[in-house]
Structure formats: structure tokens, C-alpha cells
Amino acid sequence: VSALKVESFDEPKTLRLAVDTPDGLEEAAFRVPGFLCSKTLPPILRSVCARGGIDGSASVTIDDRDGRRNEVVEHAKKLRQHVKVTAFGSTLYSTLQEKAADIFKVFEDNSHHINIRPSDRKLWDGEICFDFHSRYFTERKHVPSVKHAPFPQEVDPLHILEDLKGEDLLHLEENDVQYCEKVYGDDGSVSYVAMDPKKFQVGDFVELTVTFVCHPVKKNEFVVIPTLRALALLSSELRQQSEQRLRESRDRQG
Amino acid sequence: MNRFFDANDARAQIAKYIMN
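Predict the joint structure of the above. Result:
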């Protein structure tokens, strides 16, 4: 935490944490291990009514007739990829909560205008959990000179998001979440291999990479939002074991 | 997660991750 600096960015106007590296100043990212207990992930495969809200499939519809475009934009800009992880009561998560408070304090100490969003202590099955998300879109008014980046094929194979963005929304690289598998080599090396997001299942052991980004909410007021940058599969072994035991149990019961 | 998911094994896996 002592190495963190608060840097101001334009387009979108944000405050971000940075660290000095041999390659220069880079945005600070944090890794959180845990077991997936809830997820709303791509691909986007079907459409639902904008007024109907976001269900588990995170799908949307395009309907700009009868002046409904504003409503669609308001709905679309909140669409997000989301994960929730648990450590089943491991003391690690209590420690991480304290670390997160330290990180928030770095923002507070470096600005007079930081409005810290109350971090509710969230529980899943009675134990501390964390959830992180990343929106698919950024509003063009916040990034007027930045070029739109097409959605990856594995995220938007039917071009539903692409057709939805219209003139008001953009997809930036920073709206992307990197989906991958963490692979350990025999020589102790570590690499991350791209993985289709549809392969992630509840019960998988994963590593999240998150950043803390301060977004403006009012004039000279910001709010800190933990943002999901990457989701890496560490192991699906325990999930598969539990599924196997469930199958065997059902077989025994006929 | 189904009823056969072993939380003890899960906590052990997290501990192993931290050690590495």
C-alpha cells in the first residue's frame, strides 16, 4: 500500500492507483483468489426487453422505436459482467477486507473530494464474499475522443452488444475482462492462457484481478469502485469431484 | 455448489495458493 500513488486520468475522468515499475508508472492491480459462487458472464446470446431488467443471462434487446432509445441506453450502460467469490470462512477474506480499507484510505489521503461508497460486508452462505463487476459500455460523453473497440467474438458472438451501443455508448479496452486459465509449468513458470468465458462454472477455484477506480459522481466528488479486470481459472477439480459424487449418489438412488 | 462440495478442501486449496 505504501508504494501506491493516486494518478488523475482523463477520458474517462478518473482517479486511479499506480505503482512504479521498471517500465514506468502502471495501474496497480490486485489479485483475489476464491471459489465462484455466483456469476453473470458472457457470451451474450439472447435478447430480453429493456424494461424487463437484467436477468442472469445479461442479455438485452434493441428497441429504439417510440422514443425508447434513452430508456435503452440507460439500461445498456449498466450491463455488466459480474462474479462473486467465497473462501468458505478462510481468514484470508478478513485480511483482504482490511487491505481494501487501507487502499480506500490511500484515495482519501490524496484527495479532499473522495466519497467512499460504504463497503457493506457481504455474505454468501454465512461467510464473507466479494463481488466485482465490469460494465460492457462507457458513455461516449465521458470519452469523446476515444475510438470504439469491437467486442471480442467470445463475448458478443451474435453482435447484440455491438448493435446496441448506438451513438451514446462505446466499448473500450478497459471495459473488457480478460478470461484465461492460469497454467503452472514443470519448471515453476506461470503463464495465462486465453479461455472462453462460457467455460467458467460455479464452484471453480479462480483468481480475480481487480483495480480500484475512482469515478466522478458530482462536481469534485468521486466514488471508489472496485473493477474486475481478469478472471483466471486455477482449478475446477473440487467442482468436478462434487459433480461426480452427486451423479454417483443419484445412480445409487436409481 | 452442490451438497458434495467439500469446503474443507476448498479452504486448503486457498491456503496452498497463498503459500505459493
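The first helix of chain B runs from residue 7 to 19.
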